[in-house]
Specification:
Layout lengths: L4 H14 L3 H8 L5 H10 L2 H104 L2 H15 L6 H70 L26 H13 L2 H19 L8 H25 L6 H25 L3 H20 L5 H9 L1 H22 L6 E2 L2 H7 L16 E2 L5 H20 L8 H26 L4 H28 L4 H4 L7 H29 L18 H20 L2 H24 L8 H24 L16 H11 L9 H7 L5 H10 L15 H21 L1
Antiparallel strand pairs: 1-2
Helix pairs in contact: 1-4, 3-4, 4-5, 5-6, 5-7, 6-7, 6-9, 6-11, 7-8, 8-10, 9-10, 9-11, 10-12, 11-12, 13-15, 13-16, 15-16, 15-17, 16-17, 16-19, 17-19, 17-20, 19-21, 20-21, 20-22, 21-22, 21-23, 22-23, 25-26
Pfam families: EXOC6_Sec15_N, Sec15_C
Protein name: Exocyst complex component
GO biological process, one term: acceptance of pollen
């Protein structure tokens, strides 16, 4: 019956399902939202259909439930019975649990109290531990603030790093932790600003101090150079003493000088070290490196700007001292500041500076026309070069600029010397210099080794040279010193040959040329020309002295200077100039002699009577020659005196012969010849006496002064001879008339007429002798005509 009960109700169910919409049933079965269906029913105006369908669906489900219950009602009854049994057991278990709970509560009440106390203690311990950690961090923060306030930034940075690495992660208070995490970057930024501020102050300070640093360093180089010069001076003195057999203590002295080059160059780099270290700790190492380099490069560019408002002569020392100080500081930073600067960066800075300095020097040297200015700048630049080289910088380009200006400097120096020498010669009266005091003697004679003996003469002392000689020597000596000063400390190590070349140029092209110009173009007299010749001879002797001076200043051994062919070319030039001076002097002497010999025209060539006294011109010639020879003896060498005497007397003899040959002389008598003979005799007497007294005989010359008058003497002797026709006898002519020329004799004899015929002349005394002489003269004339 139970099994068939469901089948009897099935048609009813199906009827019910027929009234339910399949779509709606499916949606309800799937648990879908019926909202859209409800909305659609209301929107379409048919909600009643939907309600009806829902009611049918509900009835369908109630019928299914009812059927299900009828089908399993026996199982359900059994389950209810079992459930009632379970409830009874549950009540019993609940009662047991309640009893156990009461018992446990009674036993555990004390333990719970203890546990609560323990938990409370643990809580206190945790709070205390967290408080201690917080307090420690707070203490570190306080210490950091104190370091920052005191300017101890490195310690502050280390504490910040410690907090950041070891403490901040373990800080229990989140709010406190957030505050610390927020403040650490702020503090680091503050420290960076403070350190940068200090570093910027240092940049300003070090730039202002760089000039003083450079000046001190250059002063050290100057002092070292001075010590070196003193050492060389002592060595030269010792060598000179050893040459003369005098050995002084200084020859074997040992100078030990311990000098700390950096002892005076004290400047504070602490701000740099601190800024570098702190930036490294802050992690801004590369940033600070770049910041340092850019600022120092900017300062260098400012230092390299030279002011046009001030003359370079006045500004060059501060300019170069500033640059020297800059690179001394950079060298110290490179050596002591770790990796703050690299060698390549320093090299870049140096290349920038050396390029600007060489450009400035080349420009200023091209515009400077004063040797003293060039020398001052050059000396300071060489000190700058030595200073920077000692600190590891390559200063060769600076020296190259100086070397390239070497010719210009010496050309300017020679030009200045030329003007000075020209002024000296123009103001010189070319008379022997009179020295009245011993200090004048030392200053003008001994200092240039112009003395003729080692004995100090009595004063006043008349020197064999004029005032222009010692003045010129002072100019030459100053030239050598200036040349050595310019070439020293920077140019080639052995610059003696360079000094020698320029010294030769000065002596030849300036001094010698000026003297020759005075000789050839100057309006000078005989005494002045003689003095110039004497001056040239003295200057020739000074060549060796000047060369030795140059060698000493160049630290060249004198034995090398005194080797053959090692002297100045100027010495040979002065020797040649002496010959030119003597030639010019002889022209002046001949001109003076011609002035006196012009009185030959005043002679009565057709005089009837002769006189034993010489003619006026002869006396004047003797006075002139005596003064000439005596003056020459005082200032010229015996060889020069000999040349002058020979030349003067030869010119007189030639002039007497020329007087006989003159076209203006048509006729002369025996009396005139006798007068000329007297003149020649006076001149011969003077020539013989002056040759003996002047010491010229010691020269052992083949020709004496008297021999210079041989042509005029032989001509007079021939004209006064009783047998002039003997001239045609070769033996007699060679012995007595060897200096006479056939043509000249023929010309003179044609003009020779014996004393004029007088009334009753045939009765006069000596008529026979005169006739014989006349016949002999006529014979000589005929034979000379036949010979010609």
């Amino acid at each position: 019956m139970m099994l068939h009960a469901p089948s009897k109700r099935r048609p009813a169910i199906e009827n019910v399902e027929g009234g339910v919409d399949v779509v709606l049933a499916t949606s309800i079965g799937n648990g879908e939202d019926l909202g859209p269906a409800v909305r659609h029913a209301f929107e379409s105006g048919k909600p009643e259909t939907l309600v009806h369908q829902l009611r049918n669906f509900a009835k369908k489900k109630e019928i299914e439930i009812e059927e299900l219950c009828k089908l399993h009602y026996e199982d359900f009854i059994v389950a209810v019975d079992e459930l009632r049994g379970v409830l009874v057991d549950a009540d019993e278990l609940k009662s047991m649990l309640s009893n156990e709970n009461l018992r446990l509560q009674g036993v555990a009440t004390g333990s719970l109290l203890n546990l609560e106390e323990l938990l409370e203690l643990y809580s206190i311990k945790k709070n205390v531990s967290e408080a201690m950690k917080t307090l420690k961090v707070s203490k570190l923060c306080l210490t950091c603030n104190m370091h920052i306030s005191s300017g101890r930034f490195y310690h502050a940075v280390k504490i910040l790093d410690l907090i950041e690495k070891d403490y901040i992660q373990n800080t229990p208070l989140k709010a406190f932790k957030k505050v610390i995490e927020k403040q650490i970057p702020t503090l680091k930024k503050h420290i960076e600003k403070k350190v940068c501020s200090e570093f910027n102050d240092w940049l300003v300070h070090i730039r202002s101090a760089a000039r003083e640093i450079g000046q001190l360093a250059i002063g050290q180089a100057s002092a070292a150079r001075q010590r070196e010069e003193e050492k060389r001076s002592r060595q030269r003195e010792a060598i000179e003493q050893s040459r003369f057999g005098v050995v002084g203590d200084s020859l074997y002295s040992l100078d030990i000088e311990l000098i700390d080059d950096d002892s005076v160059l004290e400047f504070d780099l602490t701000p740099v070290y601190r800024a570098h270290h702190i930036h490294t700790c802050l992690g801004f190492k590369a940033k600070f490196h770049e910041y340092y380099y850019k600022n120092r490069l900017m300062q260098l560019n400012l230092d390299l700007q030279i002011s046009s408002a001030q003359a370079f002569l006045e500004s060059h020392q501060p300019f170069f001292a500033q640059i020297a100080g800059f690179f001394i500081v950079e060298n110290r930073v490179l050596r002591t500041a770790g990796e703050l600067l690299s060698e390549s960066q320093v090299e870049t800075l140096w290349e920038t500076a050396i390029g600007k300095m060489t450009a400035v020097l080349e420009n200023q040297f091209s515009r400077t026309d004063t040797t003293s200015h060039l020398l001052l700048i050059k000396d300071f630049v060489t000190l700058l070069s030595a200073t920077l080289s000692r600190h590891g910088y390559r200063a060769a380009p600076l020296i190259q600029v100086l070397n390239s200006s070497r010719d210009k400097y010496h050309d300017l120096l020679i030009s200045e010397c030329r003007k000075q020498i020209r002024d000296i010669l123009a103001s010189d009266d070319f008379e022997q210099m009179v020295i009245k005091k011993e200090y004048e003697y030392n200053m003008n004679v001994l200092s240039f080794q112009l003395q003729s003996s080692d004995t100090v003469p009595a004063f006043p002392y008349v020197a064999p040279f004029s005032s222009s000689v010692p003045d010129s020597c002072r100019i030459v000596r100053s030239f050598i010193e200036d040349s050595v000063s310019y070439l020293s400390y920077g140019g080639p190590i052995n610059f003696y040959d360079v000094v020698k070349k320029y010294l030769d140029k000065l002596m030849i092209e300036v001094l010698n040329a000026a003297l020759l110009s005075m000789i050839h173009t100057g309006n000078i007299g005989v005494s002045q020309a003689m003095q110039i010749a004497a001056n040239i001879a003295v200057l020739e002797c000074t060549c060796d002295m000047f060369l030795c001076q140059a060698a000493r200043l160049c630290s060249v051994p004198l034995r090398l200077v005194k080797r053959p062919n090692a002297g100045l070319a100027a010495k040979a030039v002065f020797k040649a100039s002496q010959n030119a001076a003597y030639t010019a002097l002889m022209h002046l002497i001949d001109s003076k002699l011609d002035d006196h010999l012009a009185l030959l025209n005043n002679i009565n060539w057709i005089a009837d009577d002769s006189t034993e006294n010489p003619n006026e011109y002869a006396n004047e010639l003797v006075v002139f020659l005596d003064n000439l020879i005596s003056t020459a003896q005082q200032i010229l060498s015996l060889e020069a005196v000999y040349k002058i005497g020979i030349g003067a007397l030869s010119h007189i003899s030639d002039s007497i012969v020329v007087a006989f040959l003159s076209d203006n002389l048509k006729r002369f008598t025996l009396s005139a010849v006798v007068g000329i003979g007297n003149d020649v005799r006076v001149l011969e007497s003077f020539a013989e006496e002056s040759f003996q007294n002047s010491g010229l005989i010691d020269l052992n010359k083949d020709r004496s002064f008297k021999d210079c008058l041989i042509e005029s003497r032989q001509l007079v002797n021939l004209l006064l001879s009783n047998q002039p026709e003997n001239f045609m006898n070769p033996v007699i002519r060679e012995k007595n008339y060897g200096a006479l020329d056939y043509k000249k004799v023929a010309n003179v004899c044609e003009k020779f007429k014996d004393a004029p015929d007088r009334l009753f002349g045939s009765l006069s005394r000596g008529n026979a002798k005169q006739d014989a002489r006349k016949k002999s003269m006529d014979m000589l004339k005929r034979r000379l005509k036949d010979f010609s």
